Amino acid sequence: MSNPHNNNILSEKQRIKEFIEIARLAEQAGIDVFSLGESHQDYFVSQAQSVILSAIVQNTSKIKISSAASLVSVHDPVKLWEDFATLDLLSEGRIELVGGRASRLGALELFGVDFHDYEDVFDEKFQLLQLLNRDEYVSWSGKFRADLNNAHILPRPESGHLQIWRAVGGPAASAIASGATGTPMVLAHLSGPVSYYKQTIDLYRQSAQQNGYDSKTLPITTGGFFYTAETTQQALQEYYPHISSGFKRSNGQDFPKQAFAQAIDPRSVINVGDPELLIEKLVYQHEHFGMQRYMAQLDFGGVPIDKIKKNIEIIGTKILPELKKRTKK
User: Fold this and answer.
1) Which is more confident, 151 or 105?
2) DSSP state of 44
3) Is the pLDDT of residue 315 over 70?
4) pLDDT for 99 beyond 70
5) Closest Cα to residue 243, out of 251, 235, 254?
6) What 3-state class would DSSP assign to 89?
7) CATH number for the 169-329 domain, one of 1.10.287.130, 3.40.50.2300, 3.30.70.100, 3.20.20.30?
8) Which CATH architecture has domain 32-165?
9) From CA 285, how far away is CA 307, in angstroms rounded?
């Protein structure tokens, strides 16, 4: 995607190399996890997500590596499992898998998934993925894939199992379904008050408790837009053109300026501002969400590598040490 400040467009080759460089810098900065999304549309280059993650694994040694997310709806769960179990072995146990729906029709059409089966396809495939994670020999039957008859599922990850999360967007029903199966949840947020997303997290924990799981031990990740600069005004001015351009090209509509301007409110989930404001906001979010992890989406809408590098530096030197100190139990 082009940089809206100067209309520069990177080649696909350069973009992939930047993914690897960003992961290495994140590791050097002491960041705990690096994640890479998957998309099958114009202006994106991470279609072959597991291939790029493999290169990242080989160029890092400590940082956890995760998908964000893998589009379970359009992939065969057995092949997806095989790819990530292999990545886990290559990384010596550093791989996590976040399973999500295909949020855009283009991916469904590309892989021949009927939109009318959208919900059922995801539910069936995600359940099978979890079964593959539990059992080495699997017998299974479903509607959208050939049956498995005592199939030997190989390879097995280093610990025997992968950490599998379920990606949840807006619908509370997805959070409730995650809780009902005791599945760790990754809750993505775009804009709005913390109180709105707390309701979703509360429903997730209630569902888990009602279905016999200890909601206090189920991990939760939240994540969304993140950008920092010397001043909040500078951060807003630099980042909004990327948000606006990214939304127009991927969703066909602009991101409302009024909604983005709410980032200055400590109660907003849009984490854009100077380091001090972001520390306060993330501490506030932790107090309300009780999440174990926050995933910062630094790279959206053509943010240039030099700005990403600067953000990683600030996170590592100013934001992360203070956050760990103030959220330590």
Assistant:
1) 151
2) -
3) yes
4) yes
5) 254
6) helix
7) 3.20.20.30
8) Alpha-Beta Barrel (3.20)
9) 25
